[in-house]
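This follows on from our talk about sequence and fold. Please put the record directly below this note.
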Amino acid sequence: MKHPKIFAAQLGCAKNQVDAEHLLAELYSVGFVSAPSAEKADYLLVNTCGFIEAAKEESINAVLSFVEIKKPAQKLIVSGCLSGRYKEELPKEMPEVDYWLGTYEPGKILQVLGLGEKSSGTENIKRLNLGDFPHHAYLKIAEGCDRRCAFCAIPNIRGKQVSFSIESIVQEAKELEAQGVKELTLIAQDTTFYGHEQGVRGPTLTKLLKAILAETKIPWIRTLYWYPQFIDDELLELMANEPRLCKYIDMPIQHANDKILKLMRRHYTQKSLREMLFKMREKIPGVTLRTTVLVGFPGETQEDFEELMQLIQDVRFEHLGGFVFSPEEGTPALQLTETPVPEDQARARLDAINDVQEEISSEATEAFIGKEVKVLIDEVAEESDYHFIGRTEGNSLDSDDIVKIVEGDATPGEFYWVKILDAEPHELTGKIVRAV
């Protein structure tokens, strides 16, 4: 029996990566195998992103590159956010694509390819981990989003939030642990809203975390994408008291000015935001805070921007990512009558934030010099003047700082105590002291 070969290109965020892992797991369950290259594949798969303009362009270019090399006998499948967002337009513009899937639905790819009924038996398919490192995996706990932030197209693409059951998530976590995962990163559009769409009897993020802690021995469990409105003391206390929960909070605040927050439809104020951020610092000693901000939103004045700058300087986030407002079709922001911010002015504001954050990050990393910290080794540093690359619990994979190991031997996927010798704004340098 000939096993069809598939070659996949994955674009976009970690949530999209998990979707790609499920798509390929379904195909592998019916006999597909991975092709070493696009040229040797029977099927080509592009899992696209459609969040902002730059991501859309990248996805379209990826599909077109596959169209150019596609042989007559090969079949091209396009899935993901871009194909879901433009499901009417894209098939007309790219007739060379054989199958359009949209965002992930269990069993849909098997149904479209004529290999099974939708949702039939997919719950028994083992979880696939396609990340760069076998000791780390992302686990998606919900689909969609109930937030209708004015700048965001995600609810239009992925619909309202649907939280997965605690039982199914725990089962997936156990499968990943059996595969050797040492760090599990829980993701959703809004992890702190987990279960809230089901009302007061629904599950909560705290209950989910307790279940994963009880049913697995995974050393590091991290959660991303908190929303300020749905964080309670029970969740903070669990993080403070449970050593296997990384003391790391990724909470995109977007802005600090009340007028801009209201225009963004963020449903909180600067006062409540400050109270929450400082409560996190108080309740979780040593917590690492990461955030994302959006500048240049319609109506943002220099004074509004200065309020955001002041909050950043007061809170001193260890990690911060910034973006310039990008008008996205179908979002409420396009209906605003407020004065647009010129792009050059918005970019100057982002540059100013980045300059301030560079100083804050430098101060944060320099505080580690001379200390011993627990580090998870990710990989061997090939062709470098250091030996290994790792991370502390205060650094999320793909987005935060790294630890360069210049002395000592280590095994990727294992934990070590590392003495920090030097620091730069976004990296630490250290030597192995001993295994954990």
In short: The two ends are 48 Å apart (CA to CA). The chain has a mean pLDDT of 94. The first strand starts at residue 5 and ends at 10.
